[in-house]
Batch of 2 targets.
Target 1
Amino acid sequence: MPYCENCGSPVEDADERCRACHETIAPLIDNQAGSSAAGSGVPVGLNGVEPLPVAPLAAVLSTASPADVAWDQPVVPPLSSSAAGDGSALTPPADPSLSASATGPLRLPIVGDLVAGRIRLVTLEEQADDRIRFEAEDEQRCAHCGEEGAHRDWCDECGAPWLPTRCRVVALSPTCVPPEDQEITFVEGNLRFIVQYAPPNWAVPAPSVGASPALGAPEIGRSIDVLLVGQASDTGKVREKDEDAIFCMTLTRICEGATVPVAGLFIVADGMGGTNAGEVASRLAVDAIAQRIARDIWPVLITGETPDESVLLRALAQAMQDAHSRILEQERLTGQTMGSTATFALVVNQQAYIANVGDSRTYLLRQGNLIRISRDHSLVAQLVEQGKIAPLEVYTHPERNVILRCLGIGTDGPPLIETDTFVQPMQAGDRLILCCDGLWEMVRDPQIAEITTQLPVQEACEALIATANSNGGDDNISVIVVAAA
């Protein structure tokens, strides 16, 4: 069969232009390894294409990509692929010196090809007389954690939106013998392939949390001098209005050269209810919590003193009770049913005092590791605790919106609200992330960690909102990011 001289794709005798690269066809070549262009006396390479200058194979495989990605795994085990027919691994031949004459004319792989049933060739990087190199994507390997599996919307292992893993693919002709330190990954047709993978996204070193190019990275474990705060809220792609409310307030007192105390109050409330009810409930919750902390805790902090932990935890529980009572009172006055979830953090020096009711969350990000501090009060969370569903099913379960505990919702409900409280030690370099379910349901935890680690606090909030919207934006989206520096 004749092939295009420009890209090596099969062409028909009647074609004037190649259907793959659209170049004018002249002349057509019936490719055989080691043949020459008719009458030219010029040696032709793989599929008759004139070879480009290229380094030896060992050097090719060790060079950085055009994007300077640090590729790893120069030698990888055989790929598991459905292309093997029975699902078994695609293994190299016992005798790597295949004969071109025994296998027929070579077909040069081109951009867009799927090899091994899973690796998509994306960009042609370099071509030689007996090998060709592509940048590619493995569609059955998660770019975030490296877990293998069929393509789907979300990774079953890390929960991130599914992205294929970038890789480099070198295709070798039957006459090309790879260096001793390189192994064939798989064989397809009369070509042999070596695959190198980029490291998982999470493995890429990220800038230190709270770092500034001008100030440098904070020393991990150092005492906190300042709290840097970012905040954002968005309606999302589905809701008509934003029923969330957020609140941020910081206190820095510097006397005689000492910063005592460093304090801040950060609240996220997610309102629920009918017309003009959800946004009222969330606003009432934020107001009540902020007013209680301002009345009971702020005056003590202003003097430079630090209240006892028992006093602080009691104030957290009372603040949440105030919010619950205020929403119940509003329900009685208006006859409307309304409610809100709420999570908030009171940071005082080296401690974060955290409270939550419902399924809004507070996370701690420390050295790239994301830890959820709060506990969801939802049906799906209860089912996970009971072992009745897998943790990842909280994102897809038909009753994932059922809340077991919230502020307000019905005057016939209990007048007292049970509040979960937590004490989390803080250090310079830590970040707190407070968000509603509209964020964490749309952006899985690994991606929250990646975005929040790599960006300044306000940019991180905006990027999280944008990512949630790009993933569907099914609900209102609110987030606060607090960096201890």
Target 2
Amino acid sequence: MKRCSSRNAATPACASSPTTEWPGLLKERRIRIGLTVLSMSLCLHSLLGATVRLSPGAPAPTTVVAITTDWATGGLTAISTESPEQPELDLTPICPDAVARAFADRIYVVNRQGCGSIQIVDPGQGFETTREFSTGGGSNPQDIALISERRAYVSRYDSNLLLEFDPEVGAVTDTVDLSSFADSDGLCEMYTMEFVPPYLYVTLQRLNHFQVANESMIAVVDTETNELVDTIPDSPEVDAILLQGRNPFGRLEVQLANGDSRLLVATAGSFADKTDGGLETIDLTTWKTEGILVDGKQLGGDLLDFATYSETRTFGIVADAQGVTSVIAFDPNSDSPPEVIVRAGGYEFNDCLVTATGQLWVADQNPIAPGIRIFDSETGVEQTATPISTGLPPFALLELPGESGPIIPNPPQVAVYPNPTRGGVELVLRSNPTGPATVFDAHGRVVRRLGRSGANPMSWDGKNELGRNIPSGRYWVAVPLDGGIVETGPVQVLR
């Protein structure tokens, strides 16, 4: 185990600045909680220097996986975005209290309280469990962050040691001690995580026997050394990022906004006070909070989860003073009141997800008719007449990448103007293409096919196949040329 000690300006004992070695990466990342952009680069490093070829035919639909539970047992249900009315129910048994992440071609299930294990599921083999291993007795794992197929971190709520392990064999390879951030009950209560190379961000709720009584934080781990990063170099101790809100709740999200990289976190605060939390943003170039963008008073309750659709439209799940949950849409940069998309009859909405096709999917645990509800992200109109059955009630959602694999530049050869863009772009090629260009998102999913053979330059209006504006983020355009060669180029979309 490696631990960063105190530091001084002359001889820093640990990592000092997020912009020292990775300034470009920090400004390029936009990562959605549930799927990491890193899977694109790590899994296809072997393609660098090789010819990239484009798969013919129509793009394969993506799959949304629902983590389901009745709190006695749990399971995984798969639903195609192409035909959601035909779900594949209860494909794999899991523990009743579980969350999951997708990385490359695997699902990593975190079996939490009462189980304490990581369960690796292969969707390509009929959702078969390929291996499972313990995270330590009574450790209560909460989240997993994958660096590669052979390296991952697990946060554990009832321990101050963050685990690093090899998922391939289930062996612990290192630990990072977070005990310096513990509160009076002796625990720091580490919760959800997000990886933005080379740093791992770990939320620390710092509850005192489950009561909100302390300031919450985000610990920063340098994954190249497994040392804690001192976010305040002038202080005598190693500091984490201090949050304005308390009790960080739900997944983290990294976004590019106005050219800067930010970390978004929902803070619920005290569940007895519906006004003390909200959506908070962290500047990843300074490792300082920018404060709460929109608070619980404006949102109408505790913010339990959120999903970004565009720079001006974010969806959230909030719980009001009566414990009734609602799905809302709001502009995080505006004081305008939120739009209520749908209100439940009780504490029933648990998770929401904006899919690659731009739809809003909501996990509804209604005791009479539980299932998935789908909404148009732009209008808020529900597209499901009744909830899509998931077998057991749905607790959480994740989206698997499409089968069209991501494209990696070799190096970038397509000139894109303007870039970044808030609208459309022109693609200027070195030679005339032999077929339509294809736009992929960061997970390798086909967003749009455009142009025609021989067209040079080509144009793209920034919309998907449904004619809707795509969310902010990093995209790739691939254009086929003679001999099966594909020229590629990155496009940064800002909304």
